[in-house]
Amino acid sequence: xxxxxxxxxxxxxxxxxxxxxxxxxxxxxxxxxxxxxxxxxxxxxxxxxxxxxxxxxxxxxxxxxxxxxxxxxxxxxxxxxxxxxxxxxxxxxxxxxxxxxxxxxxxxxxxxxxxxxxxxxxxxxxxxxxxxxxxxxxxxxxxxxxxxxxxxxxxxxxxxxxxxxxxxxxxxxxxxxxxxxxxxxxxxxxxxxxxxxxxxxxxxxxxxxxxxxxxxxxxxxxxxxxxxxxxxxxxxxxxxxxxxxxxxxxxxxxxxxxxxxxxxxxxxxxxxxxxxxxxxxxxxxxx
Length: 287
Fold this sequence. Notes:
Strand content: 25-35%
Shape: globular
Largest sheet: 9 strands, parallel
Oligomer: single chain
Number of helices: 2
Distance between the termini: 78 Å
Radius of gyration: 22 Å
Number of strands: 25
Helix content: 10-25%
């Protein structure tokens, strides 16, 4: 009898433990929500599927860790201040902005800042995922925050400046380098300057399965910040399966203070300079 009671007690404790796990999981995702944006919406709406917001800018002020902002097909104008997320995500629960149809949501227009903009000097906004957008005729597409930003399945074209730009003013001594930055399955094309560029404060980047073509359409002197990319002050960059070609300038450029980098499985060809042979190498590394 005592053994039976003990078994019942064990089962009771087990049920309590399971209930605690369920409650903990519920609490962990309590604030997760889905918001919707549509070109015919209104920022005074609730942001539901039936009552969507009008602007991605407004949704970025509302969304918090674990939330997903679904952006319906249409063209959304970039403005002076760009889309600045107000709240960070976490490693397990990022704030996600995604086009409901791949490349169906188009962000266009030449604002002063990048279309997605982390704020001045990084702003402390981390763990943001941007997925499936088409950025066309913007000044720059994305200026990530310092940690955990992911750009996935995007097309960046006809940008005036670098499609994606990193900026650490005090690098390489800055105490907050870029970390856990991922660029996945993106296409950069017909960019007036670099496809992507910047100073990472001895931070890291993982780029995989991307295409970069026809960078530096403005034909700036390739000895400067032009070509497919120009990265400075990195530690642990990994580039996999990149196809990079037909740039006025380098197919890939590691400028000064880059260490522990890996480039594998890439195809880099057909790049050219203006009047010097070194203007258009496949890969350029300064040491």
